[in-house]
Amino acid sequence: MNVLNFGSLNIDFVYKVPHIVRPGETLSSSGLTINAGGKGANQSAALAKAGVRVFHAGKIGADGQWLLEKLNAFGVNTDFVTVSDGKTGNAIIQVSDNGENAIVLFGGGNKEISRQDIKEVLGNFKRGDILLLQNEISNIPFIMETASQAGLKIVFNPAPFEPAILTYPLDTVDIFVVNETEGSGLSGGENKPEKIIDILTGTYRGKDIILTLGKDGVRYGKDSLRASADIINVPVVDTTAAGDTFIGYYIAGLLQGKSTEEILKLSCIASSLTVSKPGAMDAIPFKDEVVNLLE
Asked: Is 186 inside any structural domain?
């Protein structure tokens, strides 16, 4: 079984600030770092660090070649990443002194993925393979429909959430991984975690629903089944790739045949370790670090 992540690749410009800038405010940054990022790339790095063979598909500009070198170093296969004449996607990220973040995205190559690109990539995968998607690249509905017709199992992280997602062919999705914002958007504005799970499991029968809650851990639902797990207590330095780490380790747990409870616990430990370090994919822990804490 292969894992394909058709997702974003970004160059992250991370500014350290005392607090998230307010409308009309000019704020001095105490530091600037330039990191490899993008939800897609982060999740591929997490999968690889969790011990999964993962293929990444996407598009960058010539300025993003170093992103591929970094992913390759982690063990990610980037044969399906193409290079355009434009710019690589990038993100301006504010990280506050208490670890909160705010992000502005520029799509770049992520928004230049055509239907022909999609057909060429998906033609290399077969029924039963896993396809991981976020919402940072173009033509997501077409990817879903084409992958579903080919019999791929779809894991969808609808981030960043926008109302147009409700028009996507969500019935093709097998596993939804959402945070509180995305869960609220999919459930029609509900804010209480338990009710979000109830609404989504009722709407998407037979589908796995994973709701990540930051410091409050994670909730899981599938039809009438429920499960949960807590994070571990660590100093919070930067929350940027916490959700991406969770997703990578969650899929890894599935492939490794672990129980739902063990997968949730493992994924929470991994995401907790990520927030204890600065940066995005560089902060994601390797499998051995996580397993040692699980034991």
From this structure: yes
